[in-house]
Structures are given as structure tokens and as C-alpha cells.
Amino acid sequence: MANEPTEIVPEGLGGAQARAGIVLLVEDDLFIRMDVGDQLREAGWTVYEAGTADEAVELLQTPMLIDLVLTDIEMPGKLDGLGLADYIRRERPTIKVAAMSGRYAPTYEDQHLFDRFFSKPAFMLASDLQALMNGTQPAVDKAAAR
To answer: How far apart are CA 114 and CA 86, in angstroms?
Structure first.
């Protein structure tokens, strides 16, 4: 298991409030990323954004404090969302992982990679993600359970 980096807390945040909701949003579709990011910010989350899984890995290699990664599955680049989730499980195992996709449905072999899965279009994710952080949310949304 890799050593967890010393974490950098965003300026102006500290204590329990900072640890309640810092999310790295990984989505290649700019409009979806903007919409989901805005929803999360309005709900009080601190949101960092990456357009590819490769960009997300670069951020995750820094000591940046992140509680949760919300990632799309199908993205351009060397890694997709599955590869990113696998990287997080190996290198930053304390970070929760939520994934979303409009075409992919989690397989039995992939379920260990995610703490939560959402089928797209996914609306009003903030409360479901907060429930995930609190440990009160199921792993797969009802729409994805096919």
C-alpha cells in the first residue's frame, strides 16, 4: 500500500467542515462537469475538476486533500474511470469513489472499485454523495441495478 501524502487543506477551510465534502469531479463533457460541479458547490462541497482520468491522477499525486472522487467511466486518455478507480484503490485508499455513466453498468468484477455508482443522467447528486460520506447510501442506484 502506498503512503498517503500529507494533505493540503484548501485555504479558508479547516477542521471537520473541510473534511465533510471535498470532491474531485472527473468528467470529460464540459457541460456535464459544469452542471454537476455547480450543483455540488451550491450544496456546500469544495469541488476540484479534471477533464480526464489522466488529469485526475496528476492531482491525486499531490498532497491535495480529497474525500471523494466522482468520475465518469468513458473518457479519452490513457486511463478511463475504471482505471482511475483502480488507481485510487491502490494509491489513495482512504478516498471514496463514486462513478457515473450513461452506457456502462457495473459488472461483478468491477464492483469493488466503487463505493457508489450512478446511471446518467444523474440529477441532484449532492445529497446522495453526502449520504455516501456518512455511510448511509447503497452502492448502486436503482436505475443501474438491471
So the answer is: 9
What's 80's DSSP letter?
A: -
Question: What span, in angstroms and rounded, lies between the C-alpha atoms of 56 and 26?
Answer: 7
Cβ(50)–Cβ(26) below 8 Å: yes
Q: Are strands 68-72 and 46-50 parallel, antiparallel or unpaired?
A: unpaired
Strand 68-72 vs strand 22-26: parallel, antiparallel, or unpaired? Answer: parallel
Cα 46 to chain centroid, rounded: 12
More confident residue, 2 or 27: 27
Give pLDDT tens digits for 115-129: 988 888 766 677 777
pLDDT in tens, 61-85: 999 999 999 999 999 999 999 999 9
Report the distance separating Cα 93 and Cα 123, nearest Å. Answer: 27
